[in-house]
Each structure stands twice: as C-alpha cells, then as structure tokens.
Design goal:
CATH topology of the largest domain: Hypothetical protein af1432
CATH superfamily of the largest domain: Hypothetical protein af1432
Number of helices: 10
Shape: globular
Oligomer: single chain
Helix content: 25-40%
Number of domains: 3
Distance between the termini: 14 Å
C-alpha cells in the first residue's frame, strides 16, 4: 500500500488501498476497486490529488502510521462546521471542537509517528479545514516529543485546530490572526493560550512577521509549533515537496523564523521518508520505503529489482539520494 499522486494512477496495475471519502464522510469509492478513467477524471474535477493504492511493488506495506481516515474526515467536518458557525455570527462551538481535539490526541498517542494524508487528499471545498487538522496532528507530534502533559497537548491542539478561524470573517489575509484571536478569547471555556496561537502563528523570531512584529521570547512556544507545522503542511500538501526537502527547508530558518528548539523538535519528530515512498540510493539502486522502526530518518527499504529488504540504520554506507515521484 502506498500514497500516490492521482496523475500517477495506473488502472491496469493498481487498486484502491483505502476508500475515498467526500466532504460528508460518505465513501465515493471503496477499497479494493480499480478506478475507471471516467471516475478518475471526476475525482480530479473535485480537486482530489492523492490516492492510497495497492500494487505489486507496495505489497506488504501496511501504512499503519497513517491516521484513521474516518477520524480524519470527522475532524475536518468539525472544523468546517466551526467555520460555518462563525460566518453565521455565532460563538465558536467549543464542545464539538474539544471532542475532536481528544480524538486527535488519541490518534497521535497510539502511534510512534503519524503519517498524514495531504490536505489536498480531501475534497476541494474542505481543504482549508483539512489543512487545520493536519497542522494539529503535526503540532501534537512535536508536543509529544517535547513531553507536554495532557493539558498542554489539549491547549496546543485546540489552538492549532482553530488557528486560521479568523479567515472565516476576514476580507484581508493579513487580518486573520487578529480576528481569530478575538473570536477565540471570547469563549469562556477556552484557555487564552489557544487564542494566542491564532494571534501569533505568523510571527517570526527575528521580528519580521505579523501582525505585531514581536520577536524571540515574546512569541509563545505553542504559536511557534503551530507556525512550523503550518508551513510544513503547506509544503508537503500544496507545494508537493517531499518531507525530507520540507524539513531541510525549515531547518534553514532556525533562529530566524523559528527557534532552534522548535526546528530540532520537528527534525526529531517527523520522518524524512514515509512508507510507500520510492527512492533512489547512492548505490544506483531504486527502492521503496517499507516501514519506520527505530530511526525516523533511516527507515527499512526494499530493493525494487531484487526484493531484498533491510534497515538503513544497520547499513550506514547506504544513503537515500532522493525521492522518485512515479513508477
């Protein structure tokens, strides 16, 4: 099983490994089916860019790291509902969002690492909310590494889930942090730190961010985590950049945009190469990543030509040169 871009789908050799859902959580196409070209074009028209497929080369890869898809869809619907509620000039639906936060914390706690479905895997009309859910999952992974307690994880997750809620009532992009802050802080049940995540997630360590141009220790650590998760998710989903390259790009921003502590947490929390990813080795061979066990950046691989499988951690002279996008 592996995640592919929809343009790489081959009807003769692939079938769906997991269902494709619509915005209401209904199954558009079930696992085990081959996709007729007509349906493939329909999915593309819905702006669905990724599929999880089974094929010969990914045989035996389970993608146990990937988030439970119904849970992911439910979380997206929860955020979508919150956006609609705010647009209708009602209060933020705290109880529904808090329930979603608890489910996402459980998802992250039960896995050593979590593999995301890109936000562009979701239907076009909810991709903004899917982005918020993915940012939350990435942030929780960092929070887990930083050994946050349950209350800290809860506040971090809630703030990240609604970090862009100001967009629901903003005419200008630059206004959404302030709008979001004011919406969230007026909900009595929500910790003020959650509001500051929305307020500060575009601030930078060097003071060149917005809306207030605060710098260094003036920026809440939770907001820094949200900020780096926000950019990482954008890079892998919308820019279609590999996790390895995205991590490298963010590492160059250490102590300028993000604190060294938060960049280090990202590197030590997020794997560079995900199961199902096809890679080129320094030996000239091509392989597929099969699983992640002890080392986030040195996974198990299977050579495509011979079928031999081994851990890169146990083979220090073998290095991944880069990702190969298609078969």
């Amino acid at each position: 099983m592996r995640l592919i871009q929809i343009d790489d789908y081959k009807q003769e050799s692939m079938e769906l490994g997991k269902p494709i859902y619509d915005v209401k959580g209904r199954v558009l196409l079930g696992a085990g089916h081959r996709i007729h070209p007509k349906y493939l074009e329909k999915l593309k028209s819905l702006d669905i860019r990724y599929l999880i497929v089974e094929d010969a080369v990914s045989k035996g890869i389970t993608l146990d790291e990937i988030i439970d898809m119904p849970t992911w869809i439910d979380a997206i619907r929860s955020v979508y509902s919150a956006y609609k509620t705010i647009k209708d000039q009602h209060m933020l639906p705290f109880r529904e969002l808090q329930s979603t936060v608890k489910k996402l914390i459980t998802e992250v706690r039960r896995r050593r690492v979590i593999m995301l479905a890109p936000s562009t895997y979701a239907a076009d009309e909810v991709q903004e909310q899917a982005h918020c859910v993915n940012v939350t999952l990435i942030a929780l992974q960092l929070g887990k590494f930083l050994k946050y307690n349950e209350l800290q994880l809860n506040n971090l997750a809630f703030g990240c889930l609604v970090h862009d809620i100001g967009k629901a009532v903003s005419d200008r992009y630059e206004d959404h942090p302030v709008k979001g802050f004011n919406l969230i802080r007026n909900v009595r049940e929500v910790h003020l730190a959650c509001a500051h995540i929305a307020y500060q997630h575009h601030e930078c360590m060097d003071g060149q961010g917005f809306p207030r141009k605060i710098a260094g220790n003036e920026i809440l650590e939770f907001a820094q985590i949200c900020a780096i998760a926000n950019e990482y998710e954008h890079l892998i989903s919308h820019e279609r950049i590999s996790p390895y390259t995205a991590i490298e790009m963010l590492m160059t921003k250490s102590d300028q945009v993000y604190s060294h502590k938060i960049v280090d947490a990202l590197f030590k929390s997020i794997p560079s190469y995900l199961p199902g990813m096809r890679v080129e080795l320094n030996t000239g061979e091509e392989a597929i990543v099969t699983k992640i066990e002890n080392h986030l950046h040195r996974p198990f691989i299977r050579l495509l030509e011979s079928g031999e499988e081994y851990s890169l951690e146990d083979n220090p002279t073998v290095i991944i040169k880069g990702e190969l996008s298609s078969f």
